[in-house]
Amino acid sequence: AWGDPKNGLKPGLDAAGFSLADPGRYQNLSDDFTAQVNAFKAANAEIVTGVVIPPDFTTFWNQARQQGFNPKAVTVAKAILFPQSVETLGDAGHNLSSEVWWSASHPFKSSLTGESSAELAADFTAKTGRPWTQPIGFVHSLFEVAANVMGRVSDPTNAEAIAAAIAATDMTTVVGKVAWSGAGLPPFAAKNVCKTPLVGGQWRKKAGGGFDLVIVENAGASEIPTAGKMEALA
Q1: What's the distance, CA 63 to chain centroid?
Q2: Under 8 Å between Cβ of 25 and 4
Q3: Number of domains in the chain
Q4: What are phi and psi of 117, to 5 degrees?
Q5: Which domain holds residue 203?
Q6: Which of 28, 196, 212, 222 has its CA 20 to 30 A from that of 166?
Q7: Residues 97 and 132 in one domain
């Protein structure tokens, strides 16, 4: 999807004045990314982005550093969603960046419990001993939407009525506003996709070990506060 020439990253990058060097797809769980590293070096690439699974990114990033490829920014989806994936990289994980779709800093509350994002994240950590992760907010919001929808239908066995109620949803959840209104979406996605706020973050290594995901860019959702500024990779 990101690589699609019409609906992927290319049109937006072109409009922003960036050129795109796309080395093409590869087989998941590859053990040699020399071809990709060489392609990026030949293009003098300063930014690397894509959607890759964690083991592939670990292999790529370790090989890139070994082969002298040092971009200014690496912003990838999926591969560094969870802190455990970043921790396996050690110092090489510092200042890697990704999109952030929910965090403890998001200024929203649960319509079910009244908990803030910060309270929900803290509660998870207190009960599990693990750091919060982005999917927690969205899992919780699914229950919020379900409760809201079922509260607006008279017959819980009427599938068509439930579908209509879902389509008419307009509410604020712990991840922000949820409404299938088609706002900001192309026609083919208008009826079945709901966009929620998105910001950018960087993983910062903590003095005592581990990493924090720090929000550093909020141009698309200014209601979500930043806690730092984007920094180039060392």
Answers
A1: 24
A2: no
A3: 2
A4: -60, -40
A5: 9-101+198-217
A6: 222
A7: no
Residues 50 and 69 in one domain: yes
DSSP alpha helices (H): ranges in the chain?
9-15, 34-42, 54-66, 83-87, 117-128, 135-150, 159-167
Same domain, 154 and 48: no
Residue 71: alpha-carbon gap to chain centroid: 21
* pLDDT of 203 higher than 80: yes
Report how far residue 27's alpha carbon sits from residue 25's, in angstroms, rounded to the nearest whole number: 7
For residue 14, the domain's CATH number is: 3.40.50.2300
0.70 exceeded by pTM: yes
- Residue 2 included in any domain: no
**Average pLDDT of the segment spanning 48-66:** 97
**Percent of the chain surpassing pLDDT 90:** 91
Long-range CB pairs of 124-127 (<8 Å, 24+ gap) are none
